[in-house]
Design brief:
269 residues, alpha/beta, nine-stranded mixed beta sheet, two-stranded antiparallel sheet, 26% helix
Length: 269
Protein backbone atom coordinates (compact mmCIF):
# COMPACT_ATOMS: atom_id res chain seq x y z
CA UNK A 1 0.00 0.00 0.00
CA UNK A 2 1.31 3.45 -0.89
CA UNK A 3 2.29 5.53 2.11
CA UNK A 4 3.39 9.10 2.72
CA UNK A 5 6.44 7.65 4.44
CA UNK A 6 7.69 5.85 1.34
CA UNK A 7 10.67 7.34 -0.49
CA UNK A 8 9.85 9.05 -3.79
CA UNK A 9 11.49 7.76 -6.98
CA UNK A 10 10.95 9.82 -10.11
CA UNK A 11 10.54 8.04 -13.45
CA UNK A 12 10.84 10.35 -16.47
CA UNK A 13 8.19 9.64 -19.08
CA UNK A 14 8.39 9.18 -22.81
CA UNK A 15 6.12 11.13 -25.13
CA UNK A 16 3.97 8.91 -27.32
CA UNK A 17 1.49 9.87 -30.03
CA UNK A 18 -1.88 8.18 -29.54
CA UNK A 19 -4.48 9.01 -32.17
CA UNK A 20 -4.09 12.77 -32.62
CA UNK A 21 -2.74 13.57 -29.15
CA UNK A 22 0.62 13.30 -27.38
CA UNK A 23 0.75 11.32 -24.13
CA UNK A 24 3.40 11.11 -21.41
CA UNK A 25 3.84 7.43 -20.60
CA UNK A 26 5.93 4.93 -18.61
CA UNK A 27 5.82 1.16 -19.12
CA UNK A 28 4.19 -0.59 -16.16
CA UNK A 29 7.17 -2.91 -15.57
CA UNK A 30 9.33 0.01 -14.41
CA UNK A 31 6.61 1.35 -12.14
CA UNK A 32 6.03 -2.09 -10.63
CA UNK A 33 9.75 -2.69 -10.08
CA UNK A 34 10.17 0.62 -8.23
CA UNK A 35 7.11 -0.08 -6.08
CA UNK A 36 8.14 -3.64 -5.18
CA UNK A 37 11.86 -4.33 -5.57
CA UNK A 38 12.71 -0.65 -5.12
CA UNK A 39 10.62 -0.17 -1.99
CA UNK A 40 9.50 3.30 -3.07
CA UNK A 41 6.56 5.30 -4.37
CA UNK A 42 6.92 5.81 -8.15
CA UNK A 43 6.39 9.40 -9.30
CA UNK A 44 5.95 9.82 -13.06
CA UNK A 45 7.71 12.89 -14.44
CA UNK A 46 6.28 14.36 -17.67
CA UNK A 47 8.84 15.16 -20.35
CA UNK A 48 8.75 18.93 -19.84
CA UNK A 49 12.39 19.70 -20.55
CA UNK A 50 13.37 23.31 -19.86
CA UNK A 51 10.07 23.99 -18.15
CA UNK A 52 11.53 22.24 -15.09
CA UNK A 53 13.83 23.84 -12.58
CA UNK A 54 16.02 20.74 -12.42
CA UNK A 55 17.59 21.66 -9.07
CA UNK A 56 14.18 22.13 -7.46
CA UNK A 57 12.93 18.90 -9.01
CA UNK A 58 15.75 16.67 -7.74
CA UNK A 59 15.51 18.23 -4.27
CA UNK A 60 11.96 16.83 -4.07
CA UNK A 61 13.01 13.26 -4.94
CA UNK A 62 14.83 10.41 -3.21
CA UNK A 63 15.83 8.59 -6.39
CA UNK A 64 15.46 8.44 -10.15
CA UNK A 65 14.95 5.51 -12.50
CA UNK A 66 15.57 6.12 -16.20
CA UNK A 67 13.79 3.59 -18.40
CA UNK A 68 14.23 1.89 -21.71
CA UNK A 69 12.18 3.03 -24.68
CA UNK A 70 11.55 2.26 -28.37
CA UNK A 71 13.02 5.69 -29.12
CA UNK A 72 16.72 6.55 -29.43
CA UNK A 73 18.66 9.58 -28.25
CA UNK A 74 18.83 12.10 -31.09
CA UNK A 75 22.32 11.85 -32.63
CA UNK A 76 22.90 15.61 -32.66
CA UNK A 77 23.13 15.30 -28.86
CA UNK A 78 26.47 13.50 -29.21
CA UNK A 79 27.69 14.65 -32.62
CA UNK A 80 26.66 11.45 -34.40
CA UNK A 81 25.55 11.01 -38.01
CA UNK A 82 21.88 11.26 -38.94
CA UNK A 83 19.77 8.29 -37.88
CA UNK A 84 18.61 5.63 -40.30
CA UNK A 85 15.21 6.29 -41.85
CA UNK A 86 12.38 5.19 -39.56
CA UNK A 87 14.34 5.55 -36.30
CA UNK A 88 12.13 6.71 -33.46
CA UNK A 89 13.22 9.77 -31.47
CA UNK A 90 11.79 11.60 -28.47
CA UNK A 91 13.31 15.09 -28.27
CA UNK A 92 11.14 16.05 -25.30
CA UNK A 93 12.52 13.12 -23.32
CA UNK A 94 16.09 13.98 -24.32
CA UNK A 95 15.55 17.58 -23.20
CA UNK A 96 14.35 16.28 -19.83
CA UNK A 97 16.59 13.33 -19.00
CA UNK A 98 20.00 14.65 -20.06
CA UNK A 99 20.05 17.75 -17.82
CA UNK A 100 18.15 15.86 -15.11
CA UNK A 101 20.91 13.24 -14.94
CA UNK A 102 23.63 15.85 -14.60
CA UNK A 103 21.70 17.64 -11.87
CA UNK A 104 20.93 14.41 -9.99
CA UNK A 105 24.63 13.52 -9.94
CA UNK A 106 25.47 16.97 -8.62
CA UNK A 107 22.88 16.65 -5.83
CA UNK A 108 23.77 13.05 -4.96
CA UNK A 109 20.32 11.66 -5.83
CA UNK A 110 20.51 7.88 -6.43
CA UNK A 111 20.02 6.90 -10.07
CA UNK A 112 19.39 3.60 -11.83
CA UNK A 113 19.62 3.92 -15.62
CA UNK A 114 18.25 1.04 -17.73
CA UNK A 115 18.72 0.38 -21.48
CA UNK A 116 18.00 3.79 -23.09
CA UNK A 117 18.86 5.11 -19.64
CA UNK A 118 22.49 3.96 -19.79
CA UNK A 119 22.76 5.41 -23.29
CA UNK A 120 21.36 8.74 -22.02
CA UNK A 121 23.82 8.69 -19.12
CA UNK A 122 26.76 8.22 -21.48
CA UNK A 123 25.55 11.05 -23.73
CA UNK A 124 24.73 13.35 -20.79
CA UNK A 125 28.34 13.10 -19.60
CA UNK A 126 29.98 13.52 -23.02
CA UNK A 127 30.13 10.04 -24.57
CA UNK A 128 28.88 8.73 -27.91
CA UNK A 129 26.71 5.85 -29.12
CA UNK A 130 26.73 3.13 -31.75
CA UNK A 131 23.37 3.63 -33.44
CA UNK A 132 23.23 0.10 -34.87
CA UNK A 133 25.49 -2.19 -32.87
CA UNK A 134 24.81 -5.19 -35.13
CA UNK A 135 26.35 -3.29 -38.06
CA UNK A 136 29.60 -2.62 -36.19
CA UNK A 137 32.41 -5.00 -37.14
CA UNK A 138 33.06 -7.54 -34.41
CA UNK A 139 29.81 -6.89 -32.53
CA UNK A 140 26.96 -9.36 -32.16
CA UNK A 141 23.29 -8.63 -32.78
CA UNK A 142 21.97 -7.43 -29.42
CA UNK A 143 18.40 -6.97 -30.60
CA UNK A 144 15.65 -9.21 -29.28
CA UNK A 145 14.45 -12.22 -31.23
CA UNK A 146 11.12 -11.04 -32.67
CA UNK A 147 10.12 -14.63 -33.43
CA UNK A 148 9.71 -15.20 -29.68
CA UNK A 149 6.79 -14.00 -27.57
CA UNK A 150 7.13 -10.54 -26.00
CA UNK A 151 7.64 -12.14 -22.58
CA UNK A 152 10.18 -14.73 -23.75
CA UNK A 153 12.35 -11.99 -25.24
CA UNK A 154 13.35 -11.06 -21.68
CA UNK A 155 14.93 -14.45 -20.97
CA UNK A 156 18.71 -14.61 -20.56
CA UNK A 157 20.44 -14.04 -23.92
CA UNK A 158 24.18 -13.92 -23.22
CA UNK A 159 26.73 -13.68 -20.41
CA UNK A 160 28.48 -10.53 -19.22
CA UNK A 161 31.89 -10.30 -17.59
CA UNK A 162 31.86 -8.29 -14.37
CA UNK A 163 34.79 -5.98 -13.63
CA UNK A 164 36.96 -7.77 -11.08
CA UNK A 165 37.14 -4.92 -8.55
CA UNK A 166 33.90 -3.28 -9.64
CA UNK A 167 30.92 -2.11 -7.63
CA UNK A 168 28.47 -4.36 -9.49
CA UNK A 169 30.40 -7.53 -8.68
CA UNK A 170 30.69 -6.48 -5.04
CA UNK A 171 26.89 -6.53 -4.73
CA UNK A 172 26.81 -10.32 -5.18
CA UNK A 173 27.57 -12.48 -2.16
CA UNK A 174 29.57 -15.08 -4.10
CA UNK A 175 31.29 -12.41 -6.27
CA UNK A 176 31.07 -14.32 -9.58
CA UNK A 177 33.03 -13.14 -12.60
CA UNK A 178 30.06 -13.62 -14.95
CA UNK A 179 26.29 -13.27 -14.99
CA UNK A 180 23.55 -13.90 -17.55
CA UNK A 181 21.47 -11.01 -18.90
CA UNK A 182 18.74 -10.40 -21.46
CA UNK A 183 19.35 -8.31 -24.57
CA UNK A 184 16.80 -6.09 -26.34
CA UNK A 185 18.66 -3.12 -27.82
CA UNK A 186 20.03 -1.90 -31.14
CA UNK A 187 22.08 1.02 -29.78
CA UNK A 188 24.97 0.83 -27.35
CA UNK A 189 27.88 2.76 -25.91
CA UNK A 190 30.64 3.66 -28.36
CA UNK A 191 33.04 6.15 -26.73
CA UNK A 192 32.73 6.00 -22.97
CA UNK A 193 32.01 9.35 -21.31
CA UNK A 194 34.63 10.86 -18.99
CA UNK A 195 33.83 10.03 -15.39
CA UNK A 196 32.18 6.69 -16.11
CA UNK A 197 33.82 3.41 -15.13
CA UNK A 198 33.00 0.12 -16.83
CA UNK A 199 31.26 -2.40 -14.58
CA UNK A 200 30.49 -5.15 -17.12
CA UNK A 201 31.03 -6.04 -20.78
CA UNK A 202 29.43 -8.48 -23.24
CA UNK A 203 31.50 -11.22 -24.94
CA UNK A 204 31.93 -8.94 -27.98
CA UNK A 205 33.33 -6.14 -25.80
CA UNK A 206 30.20 -3.97 -25.80
CA UNK A 207 29.85 -2.09 -22.52
CA UNK A 208 26.92 -3.49 -20.55
CA UNK A 209 27.14 -1.60 -17.24
CA UNK A 210 28.73 1.62 -15.96
CA UNK A 211 29.07 3.57 -12.75
CA UNK A 212 29.53 7.31 -12.25
CA UNK A 213 32.91 7.38 -10.54
CA UNK A 214 32.62 10.63 -8.61
CA UNK A 215 28.90 10.51 -7.86
CA UNK A 216 28.23 11.12 -4.17
CA UNK A 217 25.28 8.72 -4.40
CA UNK A 218 24.27 5.47 -6.16
CA UNK A 219 24.61 6.07 -9.91
CA UNK A 220 24.55 2.91 -12.02
CA UNK A 221 23.62 2.21 -15.63
CA UNK A 222 22.88 -1.19 -17.17
CA UNK A 223 22.17 -2.07 -20.80
CA UNK A 224 19.87 -5.01 -20.06
CA UNK A 225 16.46 -5.12 -18.33
CA UNK A 226 16.65 -6.19 -14.66
CA UNK A 227 13.20 -4.70 -14.02
CA UNK A 228 11.26 -7.23 -16.09
CA UNK A 229 9.45 -9.96 -14.10
CA UNK A 230 11.45 -12.61 -15.98
CA UNK A 231 14.68 -11.02 -14.73
CA UNK A 232 13.71 -9.85 -11.25
CA UNK A 233 14.31 -13.33 -9.85
CA UNK A 234 17.95 -13.37 -10.97
CA UNK A 235 20.53 -12.76 -8.21
CA UNK A 236 22.10 -9.83 -10.08
CA UNK A 237 18.75 -8.10 -10.63
CA UNK A 238 17.81 -8.58 -7.00
CA UNK A 239 21.18 -7.23 -5.86
CA UNK A 240 20.89 -4.14 -8.09
CA UNK A 241 17.42 -3.25 -6.87
CA UNK A 242 18.31 -3.99 -3.24
CA UNK A 243 21.29 -1.62 -3.45
CA UNK A 244 19.17 1.00 -5.21
CA UNK A 245 16.45 0.67 -2.56
CA UNK A 246 19.01 1.11 0.26
CA UNK A 247 20.46 4.19 -1.39
CA UNK A 248 16.99 5.66 -1.96
CA UNK A 249 15.94 5.00 1.65
CA UNK A 250 19.14 6.59 2.98
CA UNK A 251 18.61 9.65 0.79
CA UNK A 252 15.00 9.91 2.00
CA UNK A 253 16.18 9.88 5.62
CA UNK A 254 18.64 12.69 4.91
CA UNK A 255 16.07 14.72 3.00
CA UNK A 256 13.52 14.40 5.80
CA UNK A 257 16.14 15.37 8.38
CA UNK A 258 16.86 18.56 6.43
CA UNK A 259 13.19 19.51 6.16
CA UNK A 260 12.67 18.99 9.89
CA UNK A 261 15.36 21.48 10.89
CA UNK A 262 13.64 24.72 11.93
CA UNK A 263 14.64 27.93 10.12
CA UNK A 264 17.53 29.66 11.84
CA UNK A 265 18.46 26.53 13.83
CA UNK A 266 21.33 24.40 12.63
CA UNK A 267 21.20 20.62 12.92
CA UNK A 268 23.30 19.19 15.74
CA UNK A 269 26.78 18.32 14.64
Amino acid sequence: MASASLPLVGIPACTKPINTSSFHAVNDKYIAAVATAGGALPVLLPALGERYDMHDLVDRLDGLLFTGSPSNVEPHRYGGPASAEGTLHDPERDATTLPLMRTAIEHGVPMLCICRGIQELNVALGGTLHQLVHEVEGKRDHRSDKSRSPEDRYDAAHPISLTADGYLRSLLADRPMEAQVNSLHAQGIDRLAPGLSVEAVAPDGLIEAVRVEAAPGFALGVQWHPEHPRALGWPLSQAIFAAFARAVADHADRRRARTHVLPGIEAAQ
